[in-house]
Amino acid sequence: MLLEDQDRTRWDQAQIAEALALVPDALRGGPGPYSLQAAIAALHASAPRACDTDWRQIAGLFEELARRQPTPIVALNRAVAIAMWLGPEAGLPLIDELAGELAEYHLWHAARADLLRRLGSPAEAAKSYARALALVTNDAERRFLERRLRAVQPSGA
């Protein structure tokens, strides 16, 4: 289930509060990869609703994480955060830059498909969803991608 579709009232608020209290200590020694990831998780967990998520700050934290841990996966997450903050038209070129490194990673194709869907390009989104489906190995993710693919295909396709 997507983060934006989750019922946050069902999240364990006591555990979230316990974790949030630890983040400042984690960051005190300087922002390393794990403390930056903790800060990103804290921003997600502290938003009462998905629409309240501080994507600008999350994008900034991923920017810092990318400086310290320059991996294609971190770059993909940064691109998605930028798309959530500034819109899919801002994130898609950043995702496309990763095509060579992540061509065999189903979540790259799924993220690209989602941005294309949001931009109103269902045929291109369908191609990316189909490629993600060809690469995915997790059954739950497969079912999700199949639903997304059906949603962007014309009726009867």
Which descriptor suits the 3D outline? globular
Count helical runs: 9
- Computed over alpha carbons, the radius of gyration is 17 Å
Q: How many extended strands?
A: 0
Helix content: over 70%
Describe the largest sheet. none
Proportion of residues in β-strands: under 5%
What do these coordinates show?
This protein has 157 residues and is mainly α. The chain is built from 9 helices and no strands. Helix 1 runs antiparallel to helix 2 and helix 4 runs antiparallel to helix 5. The model has no long low-confidence stretch (mean pLDDT 93).
List keywords for this structure.
157 residues; 0% strand; 9 helices; mainly alpha
Q: TL;DR of this structure?
A:
The chain has about 160 residues and is mostly helical.
Per-chain topology:
Blueprint: H1 13-28, H2 33-46, H3 55-68, H4 72-86, H5 88-96, H6 99-102, H7 106-118, H8 122-135, H9 139-152
Helix pairs in contact: 1-2, 2-3, 3-4, 4-5, 5-7, 7-8, 8-9
